[in-house]
């Protein structure tokens, strides 16, 4: 953002998440995949959250949404519009003011036709019309609306999932990997819609492995590593050889991207692929 006048919408501070697990049947231990994580999103701002697989992106999203598994122990501060985001408040805002595009298409109801699922939460009088518009927008056929999730391809399901997030009155969008397996036209439509959310004043958390696409729309980028925040930089810092980036870790990842030819040693070790 680099723009101090914008109001902070979401502020996550000192987030830690642990899980109690049983080892060898009886011994209980706590693993702590997230520690001291922080991120901040302003109104009208898009923050891309990037990091290797297992770095804690989805857990961060689930903590904000209040959908961590039952054995999770979560501590830290999550403020939304300046007030503590309590579990009760999360529940109330989820699906209305706070919109979520999950990483897994398993979040769709397997027993409900997909057209119907996109209509949920829309104004009842215009729901059908709006759903048809959304389908057209994301390259889905009208007849696809009558199908059940198992009858659609993975890429189609991703587009259905995305369509369920497009609602009026959304103030915070949390998109967890909305684009893998999506053809270029639908991808640019999704990026365009995320940008539109921000133009309309919403904050957007865009979790992704596709940093190159994310940089097309992101204001800032938060880099996670092993469950903690390594750095948060303006999108503009992801440029050239990355000299404006704060950490060596981020710089190396940036340089190891296929399009960037700076760090061949890391590339040979496959770091760029792990990142993507
Ligand atoms: N329910 C759970 N119980 C125990 N550990 C978990 C649980 N869920 C996630 N973890 C661990 O927390 C870490 C972060 O997981 P998370 O799903 O947030 O990663 P991610 O960055 O979203 O990865 P990906 O890019 O593959 O989606 C991983 O090491 C994972 O094994
Ligand atoms: Ni994830």
TrEMBL record:
Q: Name one Pfam family in it.
A: ABC_tran
Enzyme class, UniProt record, top EC level: translocase
What keywords tag this UniProt record? ATP-binding, Cell membrane, Ion transport, Membrane, Nickel, Nickel transport, Nucleotide-binding, Translocase, Transport
Query: What range does the record give for the signal peptide?
Result: none
Keyword Signal listed: no
A Gene Ontology molecular function term of the record = ATP binding
Report the EC code(s) recorded for this entry.
Answer: 7.2.2.11
Sequence ranges assigned to domain ABC transporter in this UniProt record: 10-251
Q: Which reaction does it catalyse?
A: Ni(2+)(out) + ATP + H2O = Ni(2+)(in) + ADP + phosphate + H(+)
> What PROSITE patterns does this protein map onto?
ABC_TRANSPORTER_1 (PS00211), ABC_TRANSPORTER_2 (PS50893)
Tell me the compartments it is located in. Answer: Cell membrane
Q: How does it sit in the membrane?
A: Peripheral membrane protein
The similarity comment for this entry is: Belongs to the ABC transporter superfamily.
Q: How does it assemble?
A: The complex is composed of two ATP-binding proteins (NikD and NikE), two transmembrane proteins (NikB and NikC) and a solute-binding protein (NikA).
**What name does UniProt use for this protein?**
Nickel import system ATP-binding protein NikD
What is the species of this protein? Paenibacillus oralis
